[in-house]
Amino acid sequence: MDLLFLEKLLVGLFASVLVAVAVSKLRGRKLRLPPGPVPVPIFGNWLQVGDDLNHRNLAALARRFGEIFLLRMGQRNVVVVSSPDLAREVLHARGAEFGSRGRNVVFDVFTDGGQDMVFAAYGDHWRTMRRVMTAPFFTGKVVQRHHAGWEAEAAAVVDAVRADPAAATGGVVLRRHMQLMMYNNMYGLMFGRRFEGLDDPLLLRLRELNGERSRLAQSFEYNYGDFIPVLRPFLRGYLKICKEVKDARLKLYKDCFVEERRKMLARFKATDSHELKCGMDEILEAQRKGEINEDHVLFIVENINVAAIETTLWAMEWAVAELVNHPETQQKLRREMDTVLGAGHQVTEPDTHRLPYLQAVVKEALRLRMAIPLLVPHMNLRAAELGGHGVPAESKVLVNAWHLANDPGLWERPGEFRPERFLEEERHVEAGGNDFRYLPFGAGRRSCPGIVLALPFLCITVGHLVQNFELLPPPGQGMLDTTEKGGQFSLHILKHSTIVAKPRVF
């Protein structure tokens, strides 16, 4: 290591100690900070709690310190909220005050400092991006217009699994087929495009780049440079890779999809054609009017790839795994569909509103296995008060939505996969945030608009699979392994399960 750099690093660390101690004392005089483990200079609580601030670890800390507590991760303040009342304050009652996003050094790279919609600071840019994205993607009219295509994609999954002779004996990795389906659903909605099969070269490139983005963003490897800024020079190599992946993804979106659609629109205009519009047409019209720029167009595509495709796919995997591991629930769901729709009648989106047990299964999967268990981090730009405690400016505020939905003090037997709860004692609870114990899509200003698509996708897909197959663990395995794998704020299954799919004969 260069001696001059080492000398500067040591001086920086010493200065960080002095600043941290001084700031801590000043804040302590002005603010009654939330409780939490005692921090040490420079590192704060990082060495005590480690890198993985997952939902279960934070729930354990909430049992020790209460419904609101503070962690000092190096020089970053992290405030964790674990009660419905405080969740309501952060997300709804004072949503503007806590409405910004707590990004980190890697998400700053992938979003160009919050130029997208998901990680934008609360303000005019976020409002514009949310408005521009809502009409073409996140309304009931979109569901009415496109659900037949989504049903056809679910039927294509069924056909592909039926055509695989190994599926009924050794099993098949259903996730691969559901992933193709989700790309076709969303790229059809965005661009009027679909991929013909799992080996489509363009699909393979998309999956590769999107997968690498998720790995880099959700890793804990870079925490040291995010928590302690003086160590950030050691992240240069990591951040360089992140930038290369970001640039490659945006170039792929632009060259292969956005520009192709732009050319197609020009041909339609030249021939006065009235072809069915897709979502990107409205996005490009907003760009033409000067409401957004070219980078914003590409970040809208980026957000759809991550926030719509990936998270919905994780939720599908969890729902299918729970049904495999609970055959009595699977059989009960199958009976409902056979009784209400008739054996062999393939479920449609309008049908799902007549299938309360199907809806309860989806709700229960989202409760027990939330894809984003801590929601996307919130941030207060100015010092605030919450639950009788002071919250320093620019704190990352985490709402432990998984804990709220799995707290034995709030739910009956929360550790069980029991869809019946949403037909019995919790029958009035909906996924849209009407009860702050249950927030799979958040609530308030920064709630996930994708709920409009995610619930139909989940109901249609789960319905088609259970209607057409008996879903079982692979030979010699009593249950599927549902070990969790978490990231910075994601939750998915560690191993993509092989599932035996025995076709039903109608």
Overall description:
With 506 residues, the chain is an alpha+beta fold. Helices cover 53% and strands 8% of the residues. The chain contains 18 helices and eleven strands. The strands form four sheets. A five-stranded mixed β-sheet has the order 1-2-7-4-3. Strands 5-6 form a two-stranded antiparallel sheet. It has a two-stranded antiparallel ribbon with strand order 8-11. β5 (384-386) and β6 form a beta hairpin. The chain is globular. Heme binds at residue 448. Its EC number is 1.14.14.91. Belongs to the cytochrome P450 family. GO terms for molecular function: heme binding; iron ion binding; trans-cinnamate 4-monooxygenase activity.
Task: Offer a concise description of the structure.
The protein is α+β, with helices and mostly antiparallel strands. About 55% of the residues lie in helices and about 10% in strands.
